[in-house]
Amino acid sequence: MQGVGNDSDGILVLGATNIPWVLDAAIRRRFEKRIYIPLPESHARAAMFKIHLGNTPHMLTEQDFRTLGDKSEGFSGADISIVVRDALMQPVRKVQTATHFKRVRGPSRSDPNATVDDLLTPCSPGDPGAIEMSWMDVDGDKLLEPVVNMSDMLKSMASSKPTVNDEDLKKVEKFCEDFGMEG
After folding, report:
1. Which CATH fold topology does 40-163 show?
2. Which of 3, 61, 124, 135 is 20 to 30 A from 164 in CA distance terms?
3. Please, what's the b/e burial string for 59-74 (b: 16 or more CB within 10 A of its CB; e: otherwise)?
4. Which residue numbers in the chain have pLDDT < 50?
5. How many CB atoms lie within 10 A of CB 44?
6. What are the ATPase AAA-type core domain coordinates in residue numbering (predicted)?
């Protein structure tokens, strides 16, 4: 940048903003390149859902990820991160609000190679083998938490809205026209 030191070789100054129209002309002039990075497309959003889930156990298929990508039109990467974090809490909410649990087979806590038949997982009152109890009645070593599934993701998405609106996108498009952003 002009006026900062004598030697600018090997220096890259990178700035980012979601509201470029509020930048003053002197700042805009000092950035040679202005690159517009649009909201992610469907396939990129699908990949973001997968990335944010990470190694968390889930029951989502590749088709589910594509569906999430399609249903999240207008969502930013940050919006998707919020949806996934909320979806990761859905199994915890199921455990906390459950009035009935049933015995299931699952991995032993003490020996990961062994399977046990006495774990408890939340269920509906009408499930065969449902036992009326709250999560407070379940021994922590015997609780088998539900894994994240597509309905958890859809429920979280239904309660989240994109943070970028059409008016903001129009302002960015106008800025691109006026100041020749690339990308």
Report:
1. Helicase, Ruva Protein; domain 3 (1.10.8)
2. 61
3. ebeeebbebbbeebee
4. 1, 183
5. 12
6. 1-39
Rounded to whole angstroms, the Cα distance separating 174 from 183 reads 15
As a whole number of angstroms, the distance between CA 95 and CA 89 comes to: 10
Q: Give CA angle at 62 (154, 89), nearest 5°.
A: 35
CB-CB contact of 133 with 155 (8 Å) = no
Evaluate the CA torsion angle 126, 131, 132, 133 in order and state its sign: negative
Read off the amino acid at residue 129.
G
pTM > 0.85: no
Determine contact, residues 122/95, Cβ cutoff 8 Å: yes
